[in-house]
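User: Okay, second chain of the day. Same drill as before: sequence in, structure tokens out.
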Amino acid sequence: MRWITLFVTGFLLSGADNNNWPQFRGPNASGVAVSAAAAPFEFGPGKRVLWKQALPPGHSSPVLWGDRIFITGFDKDNSRLEILCLAARNGEILWKRTVTASQVEKVQAVSSPVTATPVVDGERVYAYFGSYGLIAFDFEGKQQWEVTLPMPETRFGSGTSPVLAGELLILNRDEVSNGYLLAVDRKTGKTVWKQPYPGRGSESYSTPVLWRDQAIVHRYGSVDAFDLKDGKRKWWVRAGTSGTSTVTVDKDTIYAATWNPLGEADQVLPLPDFASLLAKYDKDGDGKISASFRRIWRPSAARTPPISKARPCSSKSFSTKSIRITTALCKRTNGKCFEWGCPWPRASTGCWRSGRRARAM
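Assistant: Same drill. Structure tokens below.
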């Protein structure tokens, strides 16, 4: 169970339209309220509390429009996805609607199948569930439309939230493979355009942000801009990033907080190339090293940034080095020697050779 608590502030009680908080992280994900009302300096469980309401578990944030608050939740006992509408003045639950999915999305232990924050426009509230898809309700709780989507292929579960761009509802469906940016008509749910993501597939968790008639999406390995008219990619900037955070923008600049599980580029030591290893360890010049595993290179522990301990790649091919960088190994396969390394915990699903993925033997 979680709680939603409303504190007494001029922002929430004035009732002005510009006090709306319509989506994840507020107007255009800026985290900045439009209202000029001053926020309180002090508030907490025993100070300035107006009301408190118990809610089903979930990781979504509440959104506010006028006198209505909308939020999603997850009924774990019955595997049901829920969207709730509350009265802003007293916290009363005005209505609750249940979305039944054939299968609930598998998520990381600390996450939830309900992570997406709804988006609201004064006529409808729009919700996204990775286990189900998109669904829209009017302010009285009557379903307007739905777009069922296949279960996303992610390692940790969904993290993105839908956003509105004029008459469009935009959703980042970045996945391990076959990811895309989707735009549907906000009134009908009909697809307006669907733009497949280019390049090597890997999921991201960010929410699109609008900037100069473009949808800016922080993706794995890049920050991309897509034209709102047709979804075509206009430009992109490559970066060493896993695409976990949502960008923020101002008039002339886009800011992205990047993170990479392998560390910063200047901290990652390159593995030696095969030619140099062969020259050093092929004693008889036959192009082979050995039929058995040998440790062929190990960087200094003092120079390597800590990372999680590597897991076995298979019962025969593995690498480990305390809790720091992976030790490179060599194995003879079909008369040739390959260098194998497992750069991070996910390597249990495969290995990497010369920057390209290879199937574990």
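Residues 303-361 have pLDDT under 50 and may be disordered.

User: Thanks, on to the next one.
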